[in-house]
Amino acid sequence: METKKTEAIILRTKDFGESDLIVTVFSYRYGTLKGVAKGARRSSKRFVNSLTTFSLVNLAFRERRSGDLVWLDTCELAEGFPAIRSDYNLLSKASYMVELTETLFPSNVQNAEMFQLLKFGLGSLSEKQNTEETMIMFQTRAMKIGGFGINLSQCSLCNRRYEGKGRALFHPPSGSIACLSCEKESVLNPGMGPKTVQVLEDFQSTDLSLLQNVQCDDDIITELKKVLMMHVEHRLGKKLKSAKYL
Ligand SMILES: [Zn+2]
Known about the structure:
Layout (H helix, E strand, L loop, with lengths): L2 E14 L3 E8 L3 E7 L18 E8 L5 E11 L2 H4 L2 H17 L7 H15 L4 H15 L22 E4 L4 E3 L12 E2 L1 H12 L12 H19 L10
Parallel strand pairs: 3-5
Antiparallel strand pairs: 1-2, 1-4, 2-3, 4-5, 6-7, 6-8
The structure holds zinc ion.
Zinc ion binds next to loops.
C-alpha cells in the first residue's frame, strides 16, 4: 500500500495492546483518520514526542486492506501548543474545539477550511489572549463550515429584514434571528444588540487572517456565548461532552 502524507492535528490517543496506541487525528488532506501507532508506547523513533492531544504533526500513513484503521508510519511534531496543556481553562476550550470538529467532520470527510480553523483556534488559545473571543469565533465558523451558518439577514418568522438597528433575538429552531414583534426575549430566545449581531456576521464571513486577536466588549461576549451554545446544541441534536467544562 502506498504511503500518504498530510499535516494533521491529534484529537485523541488510546492505549492498544501491550505497546501500541490508537490515534485519532483531523488531517488536512483526508479529514478524520484513526490509526494504529505500532510500538508507540515503547520508545519509538518514529513517533518522538508527537502523539499528544492538540499537537500539530506531519503524518505518514498507509491504508490497510480492510477495516477503517490506518497504519501510522511516522509522525513528526510541528507544533505542540504546550501552553494549552498547562492551563485548565485553555484545556477545556481546546477539548471543545476538538470534539466539535470531530462531530461535524466524522471519518473520511475532508475539509481544508475546517483544518485551518482548528489549527488557528489552537494557536490562538496557546497565545492566551482573548480566549473567550477565540472560542466564540471558532464555534461560529465551525458551524458555518459544517453547513449551519446563522441567518442574520431577516426574521425567520415574519421575514422582515434586519437593518442592523435595535435588538434581535436568536431563534434556535430555525438557526436564525427573529424580531421582537414575533418573539419575546427569554432564556429560550436570547437577545442580541446590533453590535453583537455585527460581530457574529464578521465571525461568520471575515477572512480568518483578519480575526487574529479580535477583542469584544464583555456584554457582546456574554450574549454570543449563550447564542452559540444553543445553536450548536440545537443543530447537532446533543450537548457536546466537553461543553460542561466551559
Ligand atoms: Zn418577525
